[in-house]
Amino acid sequence: MERNGGKQQQQPPAAAAGKAAWRDGAVTYFHLLFYIAISGGQIFFNKWVLSSKEINFPYPVALTLLHMVFSSVVCFAATKIFKVIKIDEGMTTDVYISSVIPIGAMFAMTLWLGNSAYLYISVAFAQMLKAIMPVAVFLLGTAFGLEEMNCKMLAIMSVISVGVIVASVGEITISWVGVVYQMGGVVAEALRLIFIEIFLKKKGVRLNLISMMYYVSPCSAFCLFIPWLFLEKPKMDASVSWNFPPITLFLNCMCTFVLNLSVFLVISRTSALTARVTGVVRDWSVVLLSAAIFADTKLTFINIVGYAIAIVGVVAYNNHKLGVKPQTNQQQGAESKVNQGSHQHVDMPLNSTKESS
User: How remote is the C-alpha of 122 from its chain's centroid?
Assistant: First the structure.
């Protein structure tokens, strides 16, 4: 009886632990699925706003500017007025001018060029071209002395490049203007990641994604305001046919902000590897779904084969980068445990903010 009683006393804690683990796993998978849904949905939403006849708003700079203004207002209200979110302290004027402004300028360039590409090429083809991102990051990192050229990385870069070239050859209706816009956005995003490494991490400034949005969004909005004033505002003034209903505008901007929050939640609850793998699943989902949603998307067998080759290279690149400095990762994990008073410090994945606009 005492043994049975002892077993009965041990079973409830074990059952409670199993139930808690199941609940924690379910919440994690929900965050992953939500990130895939909101990220892919935001890409489709932007494509529809920029190219649909119902909205008729072919102004990518204006759209991105609205996103940055909305993000700046929400971040300011959440941190300074309602104080529901605490940002990382330690930002100085010198660091902001020398570090945040270049990062914000590259972020604005990334979103401007990336959104402009949707006016000329399909969503699926744009995602295929984005697979070249690791090549741009590696080559620029090598030029800045952050990466070292070796045979393994050269092979990985070659696989990705071949895959993107094959996917481009398989594109039925290719617009070189759209390709230039998209590749320009890729280079700008690679420079942004390089600047984060040089200007922030090497100076000991570590910001989570919420703090990064708080500091970078106003700077990006200002950088976008200048080209909008000279390039798109005259066109908008001359045209009387464009239309952007306030409800649609609010929902589009809100989806952008929620997407950034979902990136933060995914990285906080999982690991960098899980976030990167989730990004690959998201990319494939966007490519396949865009063929069913948009009339300008026609996938060919060569498209799929080329993109599959590129994704193999991207996965190999992610695994290599995450396994290069395991001791550094362990030190970062120890630092994050020490700093549990605020948001967890996280490193943004390679394609975390690329789809934010």
Answer: 19
Tokens of 312: 């193999």
Q: What dihedral do alpha carbons 265, 266, 269, 272 form, nearest 10°?
A: -130
Give the chain's largest Cα–Cα span: 89
Residue-level pLDDT at 265? 80
pLDDT of residue 10: 52
Rg, the chain, Cα only: 22
Any idea which residue has 């990006």 for tokens?
220
- Those residues of the chain that have pLDDT short of 50 are 1-2, 6-8, 327, 329-357
CB 348 within 8 A of CB 200: no
Of 48, 44, 71, 45, whose CA–CA distance to 58 is shortest?
A: 48
The DSSP line for 172-210 is SS--HHHHHHHHHHHHHHHHHHHHIIIIIGGGT----HH
Residue 94 CA to residue 131 CA, distance in Å, equals: 35
